[in-house]
Structures are given as structure tokens and as C-alpha cells.
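PROTEIN DESIGN WORKSHEET
SECTION A - STRUCTURE
LENGTH: 143
C-ALPHA CELLS:
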């Protein structure tokens, strides 16, 4: 049952945004749009990690973090998207994107579901691999 809570909250958040926000930007530069989506992506990641951290701290069987040569895939993608959005924004390339309210909501839904799908993936560089680790919040990245 717990695996359906986050997708339900995503749907609820987007439904609430669709009802409560009257005016959505109809056209934005590509840089602005990429920055908005990447910030939403990273904020979603941060919120999930804070909830998981709180849950870990309140459990009696809390284990100390371990050090490994890994990095969270969703955090890495979010940071790359932010850097890409800043480059697009500052160089003013990429043109203009036109989205309706439904376009915004479906794009955000797609983005947040991708984020949800990536939540347990970890990138390791010694050896090079991507693998699933549901407890990677308890790992401190190290070069």
C-alpha cells in the first residue's frame, strides 16, 4: 500500500494546482521552461528525501550512513538539467515554448512520474554501473 502514496500525492498536487492556479504562462523561453521543470524535479527529490530521512530518524533500527562511490541518479539528472537550463537562459537560444494549462499539467505529471521511477537508482563509478538501491539515502558519496 505504501508504494501508492507518492503517485497519489503527485496526482493530488497536480489536481490542486490545476484548480487553484488561474493563469499559467502561455509562452516562455526554452531556458525558462527547462529551469522551471528542473527546479520542480529537484524539489520533488528533496521533499522525498526529507520525508525518508525523517522516517529513518524516527525508527528504532536507524543505521549510520556508509560511504561509497555512488551518486543518486535523479539528483544527477536534476543538476544537469539546471545547468542546461541556465546555459539556455543566459545564451537566449532554444526559442519559445507555448504550453496551455493542460500542457503544463501533463508535462509536470510526466516529469514527476519520471522522477518517481528514478527514485531508487544509483550511479556507481567504481565499478561503472547503475543499479537499484532503495536505501541509498543512507550513503554518503565519495570520490
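SECTION B - SEQUENCE
RESIDUE ASSIGNMENT:
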Amino acid at each position: 500500500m505504501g508504494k501508492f502514496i507518492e503517485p497519489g500525492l503527485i496526482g493530488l498536487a497536480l489536481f490542486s494546482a490545476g484548480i487553484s492556479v488561474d493563469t499559467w504562462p502561455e509562452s516562455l523561453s526554452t531556458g525558462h521552461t527547462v529551469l522551471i521543470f528542473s527546479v520542480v524535479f529537484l524539489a520533488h527529490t528533496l521533499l522525498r528525501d526529507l520525508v525518508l530521512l525523517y522516517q529513518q530518524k524516527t525508527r528504532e533500527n536507524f543505521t549510520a550512513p556508509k560511504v561509497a562511490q555512488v551518486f543518486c541518479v535523479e539528483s544527477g539528472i536534476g543538476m544537469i538539467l539546471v545547468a542546461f537550463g541556465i546555459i539556455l537562459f543566459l545564451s537566449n537560444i532554444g526559442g519559445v515554448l507555448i504550453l496551455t494549462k493542460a500542457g503544463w499539467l501533463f508535462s509536470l505529471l510526466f516529469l514527476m512520474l519520471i522522477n518517481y521511477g528514478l527514485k531508487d537508482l544509483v550511479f556507481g563509478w567504481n565499478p561503472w554501473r547503475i543499479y537499484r538501491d532503495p536505501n541509498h539515502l543512507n550513503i554518503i558519496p565519495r570520490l
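SECTION C - NOTES
The CA atoms of residues 7 and 113 lie 7 Å apart.
The mean pLDDT is 87.
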